[in-house]
Design a protein that fits this description.
The protein has 1474 residues and is an alpha/beta fold. The chain has 46 helices and 31 strands. The strands form 10 sheets. A 10-stranded mixed sheet has the order 10-5-6-11-9-8-7-14-15-16, sandwiched between helices. A 5-stranded mixed sheet has the order 29-30-25-28-31. The protein has a two-stranded antiparallel ribbon with strand order 1-4. The longest helix has 56 residues, at 1151-1206.
Length: 1474
């Protein structure tokens, strides 16, 4: 039995000292009521849990602890018994207890002193009071590993909004997309292993995929234990990220065993809870696999079911909340899942169905679930008391004797009402084809229910689609929503398309594209701004965008952060794509842009405070579409690293090769700034995939047509900032793409200019040395116009080819170096010779060429940008260095006093000029890769020198300090420390280091000789060294060991690793860098230095005087005509589709994929065989039962015949038994796809609802077979109820007596009241009229005004359904109608304002008062009818509580059956579609 702790005030800082052994001492001091304070019901917490932490983290952080400690006691209560009244019952240990179930010492101190005013009898409403709760925090299940949860003890009267606030704001739970309420047997029961596995897997799958909350009773028994074990198995089999399922247990506090360990006034963080099933007795332990517990306290002990009302209210409150996720706003749907169960479960199902909650019954789980499942396929009239009695005797064989006749009647009535609401009832059968998963059954049940709620027509389909998007169940959307029953317009899908994009649901995006969504219509300027507004805040692009906005705010000196516009996005994109691209989105000149105007009625969507519906429904104006919507969506997806989404959108792109290369570039740039290593790896892997996509498309194009494929490389793409595919590949350093054979063939083609690429090099050199050979057939050209012998263009075509320019420059450069070397070594005079002046002139031409390269700006980037691009190239830096060194040497050389230093500096410049030759040799396929390897190894040497310097300096300093005393000459210090130590590595060991070969003549004793080192420490007598030779030798050996053996071998290993690493990709790297050389000489003036000055002069005249801009050569960047470009892109898109199909075929042919496919098929086949076996077994069992039933019926018939023959008159007084089996008919119904024929109910239904509307009066249960007055019903004892209408002048007596009733004239006009019925004379019994349609379960007149018939007149208003142009819409060649429907206050259903002439099945009807009405059809044939316009204006200004609307009329309209029958008559009358 639980022990209640006393209330103590503890500071938050002392939290860890409180309640460590809370339940150890069984004798607790009683508390005084004055210790508690009354506080407001709900106060806002001082600090809510941030959105980024909306996950259930355990254990709770310190801030959350303080938050809970301050908030929970102020807003959440428990209940305490304040008056001890001795009960006739005793506790399990035989001790005296109170009526509340607690011992005397467990009460408050004041409770033992009963005040006089409280009375002697115990009353829960007076003797139980609310106080601040004393049990909350984290719960740890001792001995079960790291299982943690959260718990709170709440009063049974706690408002649901307080609990919901606790769960979402303080426990950090995300609002659910779905609420799954699991109910059933509270005791352990046995399920078939297969059914148990199917249920467990399906339940956790639907919870995990939809983000649902599972609510159970929370105890470690029955259905709650099954749910807990299902969650446990799922968590163990999944990763940590996938294994987060919210499972909430709502249990009764007074029935929890070991609950004393949970009591802690300042919160348990954690509270240690022991799950002890052996000693729990009549109480229950909490289930360790639930994540959260709400323990409902009503102040009593040991009473089960206390939590049910609060659970019902909480579930209803949650289902009324709106969840916004991924741009879709939905009311949180709720579904009830039933396993097994007893009488309480039946009440739960009935209440759920009454409240419109769909229920899924798991057949085969036992008891109540099986009773309902077995009769769910039958028509309601066939569900009789006898049938239910028979079912109960089989399924409740242990407790069947407890069912009284009244209980059987009540159960029959409730089961009939449950089965009657077939739209809310789904039976999961293990062997039913097409429904093999519980998760599918649950979601299908919700969709089936949503079609019958207050959603009509397209709005209903929109609601279902929003549910599917919120749950991310595209399989359900395909099977249940996108069917032939409804035709979707592409524009109707635009809002959910945006929601699917924002919430990263690629399968839905793919589905919407398949359903006809056109990106050109969907992607507008405003849509893009909206999408970038709702980017994932965690992505790098978002932070870069925020920096741009922050810079703009600082630049404009504004206080408010500017809103995201597309020119901000363009600014970041240009930074990522490189400055070779133009801005993708230009900055608008005017702020006011045309707005989007696409009406999307009946849908409410919202993302992060920005309305999605308002995006698609704005003021009238022209829609502003973007130039390339696929590109815009692709960029938006790629910058957020959304792989699947990007692939789907890329498959829609037209300029697909440029798009793939641009995506690769963007991802590589973003990966450089991403801090998370996993995300960086993902980005780089995705960038590589996009590069492979570009390679794949280009390969197909190149195989099909080389000429057009090479045109794709150099085509100027307007969509991607007027750049080319080749330029994008180079910017992204996509070596695989650039090294592709087609790209290299194109570069070779550019390299040879107008000449054929198969000309031998010796022919080229021969023509260079003797150009008249050009006019022979020695050199061939590609272009036919250059082929004629006497053509002067041959000379120009030959000498402007990059290969010729390159070789001419090589020849020129070698000449320059030879002349430079000759001057330095032979002809360096005080006064420069003509050869030296020629070198200066030559250098001047080189300086002019470097200046031209620096200022060459065909893309108009600006001088600063061109300078930054120029200096990024290593060889340009080397050129500038050589020129500056040369100019420095030249300056010194021209000054007589510095002639020799000038020669030295010029010699150094010569070295740098020689190193420049390496760049020239990169064009060679043999030398080029080796130069790349050398460059990589230079980096290894640079890092190796850091390690070497440590050893050199450390050994050199130690050696110098040991050997030589106070060497003050800096140059000799450097030699001793660094130079000699460095030479020692290569074997030049100093002779004096070991003292053996010491010679004093080789050193200076005092360090005065500038050409000799200072002598080591020596003996003054014999001049022998006195330093410790053994120490220096050991240091030398260690030094040589680490430097010669370790470090040098490390360097060799590094070289070897670099060589192997680079050697694998040398060819790719060389091919990639080859482009730079080709591009350089492709744009270089044809004349070599120093003759290049003539070309420079020509450029100066053209650019400076004639003002002609720099232009790209068409071979590297070509702008095509619109028609040619459109044809080229269409051809590329066609080949892209072939490439994607080929990729799909390859994936299918992959061995691993084949194995997976075969395994899936084998599993599916085995499952189908198993299901067929189960179904066949079930059918055999049903047939055997049917056969037994028929044999029994035959035996009864034979017995009757025998009795008849025994009579004298050959007859019998007994009725002849029916021949045939109810089981057989039941089986027949089940065979017909489980769908019984829907027919009109024989009796009134709404008039027999168990709870009378507008009151707390329950009706007496009346099953269908007991409705007629002619049928004997001895148990019938209905309560009486008559409401008093104070505002009504005409009404029958409120409390009718026989004297008053005799004054009423029935079946005639009674003054102003017409008491005549359309159905003729009705019976009057004991002064009260009897309802002509039978029993209702309630006497009196209820909320009606008069006994007998209450007459009403209502019109049925219809009009033709029309298009926007006014034309009538037809379906199946028939005109379509719209009918006026209404939803009255305090009602959840839509109905017709009028019904028909006669009895109306109204919930207000009683045994003695009922509603009769006359329905009149009013049809407006003309849309311009004045009366219809008046009606519409009246409807707009009517009572806001009364919801009235026009609804399309067809057979699927969700109204009552009698209403639909009338509408069918109206449509037949008007010849309209139904």
């Amino acid at each position: 039995m639980a022990v209640r702790g006393r209330c103590t005030k503890v500071l938050p800082s002392e939290l860890n000292k409180v309640c460590p052994q809370r339940g150890d001492d069984p004798t607790m001091h009683p508390r005084k009521m004055s210790d508690f304070e009354v506080v407001p019901n709900l106060q806002q917490s001082s600090s809510s849990v941030s959105k980024s932490r909306r996950k259930a983290h355990f254990p709770t952080g310190s801030n959350e602890k303080e938050n809970l400690i301050s908030w929970i006691p102020e807003n959440i209560r428990k209940k305490e018994c304040t008056y001890f009244v001795e009960s006739s019952q005793t506790s399990d240990s035989g001790r005296i207890v109170c009526e509340c179930g607690y011992l005397r010492e467990q009460h408050l101190e004041d409770a033992a002193k009963p005040p006089i005013f409280l009375g002697k009898e115990w009353d829960s409403s007076r003797h139980i009071q609310e106080m601040p709760t004393d049990a909350f925090g984290d719960i740890h299940f001792t001995g079960l590993g790291q299982k943690m949860g959260k718990y709170v003890r709440v009063s049974s009267d706690t408002p649901p909004r307080v609990i919901y606030h606790l769960m979402t704001q303080h426990w950090g739970l995300d609002a659910p997309n779905l609420l799954i309420s699991v109910t059933g047997g509270a005791k352990n029961f046995i399920m078939k292993p297969r059914l148990k596995n199917i249920f467990r897997q399906g339940l956790v799958k639907v919870a995990q995929t939809t983000g649902a909350w599972i609510i159970t009773g929370g105890s470690h028994t029955g259905v709650m234990k099954q749910v807990g074990e299902a969650v446990r198995d799922f968590i163990l089999s999944c990763s940590h990220k996938e294994g987060e399922i919210v499972t909430i247990g709502i249990a009764t506090w007074g029935t929890v065993y070991n609950r004393e360990s949970l009591i802690c006034p300042m919160g348990g963080f954690p509270a240690e809870y022991i799950l002890d099933e052996e000693n729990q007795g009549s109480l229950s332990c909490l289930d360790s696999n639930h994540s959260h517990f709400i323990l409902v306290d009503d102040g009593t002990h040991g009473r089960y079911g206390v939590e049910i009302p609060l659970r019902t209210r909480l579930e209803k409150f949650i289902s009324e909340q709106t969840k916004v996720k991924g741009g879709v706003a939905i009311k949180i749907p709720i579904v009830c899942v039933v396993l097994e169960g007893g009488p309480g479960t039946l009440d739960t199902i009935y209440n759920a169905i009454t409240n419109g909650t769909p229920c899924v019954i798991v057949e085969g789980s036992g008891r109540v679930a099986d009773v309902i499942a077995q009769v769910a396929s039958l028509p309601v009239p066939k569900i009789t008391i006898a049938l239910i009695q028979k079912k109960l005797s089989v399924l409740f064989h242990d407790t069947y004797e407890l069912f009284t006749e009244g209980k059987l009647v009540e159960w029959t009535k409730k089961i009939q009402d449950i089965v009657r609401s077939r739209q809310l009832l789904t039976v999961f059968r293990e062997g039913k084809y097409g429904q093999q998963d519980v998760d599918v059954a649950i979601l299908q049940a919700l969709f089936k229910a949503s079609r019958n709620q207050d959603h009509f027509g397209r709005e209903n389909w929109d609601h279902q689609l929003k549910l599917a998007v919120a749950w991310n169940r595209v399989d359900i959307a395909r099977s249940e929503i996108f069917t032939d029953d409804h035709e979707w317009k592409p524009t109707d899908l635009h809002p959910v398309m945006a929601a699917a994009l924002i919430s990263n649901k690629p399968e839905f995006v793919k589905l919407f594209l398949e359903q006809g969504v056109r990106l050109k219509e969907f992607v507008t300027w405003d849509t893009l701004v909206y999408l970038y507004d709702n980017m994932a805040p965690s992505c790098v692009f978002h932070s870069k965008l925020q920096k741009v906005l922050l810079d703009e705010r600082e630049h404009t000196a504004g206080s408010k952060m500017p809103r995201i516009q597309l020119h901000h996005v363009s600014q970041v994109l240009r930074e990522l794509l490189g400055c070779s691209t133009q801005p993708l989105y230009p900055k608008p000149k005017h702020i006011d842009r045309p707005r989007l105007s696409i009406p999307v009625p009946h849908i409410k969507l919202n993302v992060q405070g920005s309305s999605l519906r308002s995006l698609y429904k704005r003021s009238a104006g022209r829609v502003t579409f973007t130039m390339d919507p696929v590109r815009d969506l692709l960029i938006w997806a790629v910058v957020q690293n959304r792989k699947e989404l990007g692939e789907i959108i890329w498959a829609q792109s037209q300029d697909c090769m440029a798009a793939a290369l641009a995506c690769s570039k963007i991802l590589k740039e973003l990966a450089k700034e991403e801090e998370d290593t996993d995300t960086t790896d993902d980005m780089l892997a995705l960038a590589e995939q996009y590069e492979h996509k570009a390679i794949g498309v280009f390969t197909d194009c190149y195989r099909k047509d080389e000429e057009r494929a090479q045109k794709l490389l150099t085509r100027v793409s307007e969509a991607w900032g007027k750049t080319t595919c080749l330029q994008l590949a180079l910017e992204a350093k996509n070596m695989n793409f650039v090294s592709h054979g087609g790209v290299q063939a194109f570069l070779t083609k550019v390299w040879w200019g107008k000449m054929c690429v198969d000309n031998g090099l010796w022919r080229v050199i021969a023509c260079m040395l003797f150009f008249p050979l050009l006019y022979t057939s020695l050199i061939t050209f590609r272009e036919k116009r250059v082929q004629p012998m006497g053509c002067l263009t041959r000379l120009r075509a030959f000498f402007t080819a990059p290969v010729i320019i390159f070789h001419m420059n090589i020849l020129s450069y070698f000449t320059f170096l030879l002349l430079f070397a000759y001057v330095l070594m032979v002809d360096f005079q005080p006064l420069p010779s003509w050869r030296e002046y020629l070198i200066y002139f030559w250098l001047f031409s080189l300086v002019c060429e470097e200046t031209r390269q620096l200022l060459y700006d065909p893309d108009e980037f600006g001088v600063v940008k061109m300078a930054s691009l120029y200096f990024k190239d290593f060889w340009n830096k080397l050129d500038i260095c050589a020129i500056l060194v040369f100019i420095t040497g030249l300056t010194c050389r021209l000054i007589p006093s510095t002639l020799y230093p000038g020669r030295i500096i010029l010699s150094l410049a010569f070295i740098i000029f020689c190193l420049r030759l390496m760049h020239i040799f990169t064009v060679s396929k043999t030398l080029g890769p080796k130069i790349i390897i050398v460059k990589r190894m230079m980096k290894d040497v640079f890092f190796f020198l850091f390690l070497l310097a440590v050893w050199v300096v450390s050994f050199g300093v130690a050696k110098q300090a040991i050997l030589i005393h106070n060497e003050e000459r800096v140059e000799w210090l450097f030699r001793g420390v660094v130079y000699h130590s460095y030479l020692t590595i290569f074997g030049q060991i100093p002779s004096y280091i070991d003292g053996v070969n010491f010679n004093i003549d080789q050193c200076s004793p005092n360090g005065t000789d500038p050409y000799k080192p200072k002598c080591p420490e020596t003996n003054e007598d014999n001049k022998k060294p006195v330093f410790p030779e053994w120490l220096t030798v050991i240091l030398l050996c260690l030094y040589l060991l680490f430097t010669n053996i370790l470090l040098l071998n490390l360097l060799i290993a590094m070289f070897n690793y670099t060589f192997q690493q680079v050697q694998e990709h040398t060819d790719q790297i060389w091919k990639f860098q080859r482009h730079d050389l080709i591009e350089e000489y492709h744009g270089r003036p044809p004349a070599p230095p120093p003759f290049i000055l003539l070309n420079h002069l020509q450029i100066l005249v053209r650019r400076g005087l004639l003002r002609r801009p720099a232009t790209h050569h068409k071979q590297l960047k070509e702008k095509l005509e619109k028609n040619e470009e459109a044809a080229l892109l269409s051809w590329e898109m066609y080949l892209k589709e072939n490439y994607l199909q080929h990729q799909q075929c390859q994936e299918k042919q992959n061995t691993e994929q084949k194995i997976r496919d075969i395994a899936q098929r084998v599993d599916l086949l085995a499952e189908l065989l198993d299901l067929d076996r189960v179904k066949s077994t079930g059918m055999v069992e049903q047939r055997l039962v049917s056969l037994e039933d028929q044999v029994h019926q035959s035996a009864q018939a034979l017995r009757w015949i025998m009795k008849a023959l025994q009579g004298n008159d050959f007859s019998s007084g007994e009725d002849m038994p029916a021949v045939g089996s109810s089981k057989a008919s039941e089986m027949k119904e089940v065979d017909l796809e489980g769908k019984p024929e829907e027919s009109q109910p024989l009796y009134h239904v709404l008039a027999r609802n168990l709870l009378y509307p507008g009151s707390h009066t329950p009706r007496f249960p009346v099953p269908d077979e007991k409705v007629p007055w002619e049928v004997d019903f001895p148990l019938y004892n209905p309560p009486a109820y008559s409401a008093d209408h104070k505002d009504m002048a005409v009404q029958d007596p409120f409390s009718p007596s026989l004297e008053c009733l005799l004054k009423i004239n029935y079946n005639t006009m009674d003054g102003l009241i017409n008491r005549q019925s359309f159905h003729g004379l009705y019976t009057v019994q004991d002064g009260l009229p009897l309802n002509p349609m039978g029993r209702t379960g309630l006497q009196g007149r209820g909320r009606l005004h008069c006994f007998g018939p209450n007459h009403a007149l209502h019109p049925i208003v219809t009009r033709w359904r029309r298009n926007l142009d006014g034309s009538i819409i037809r379906k199946s060649l028939k005109k379509m109608l719209e009918v006026l429907v209404a939803q009255y206050p305090l009602s959840d259903v839509w109905a017709l304002p009028g019904i028909h002439k006669g009895y109306l099945d109204d919930p207000r009807n009683t045994d003695n008062a009922w509603v009769e009405t006359v329905a009149i059809s009013v049809h407006f044939n003309n849309q311009n009818d004045v009366e219809m316009k008046r009606l519409n204006s009246f409807l707009q200004g009517c009572d806001p509580e009364l919801c009235i609307r026009w609804q399309v009329l067809d057979k699927r309209i969700p109204l009552h059956a009698n209403h639909k029958e009338l509408l069918h008559k109206v449509s037949t009358l008007l010849g309209a579609y139904y």
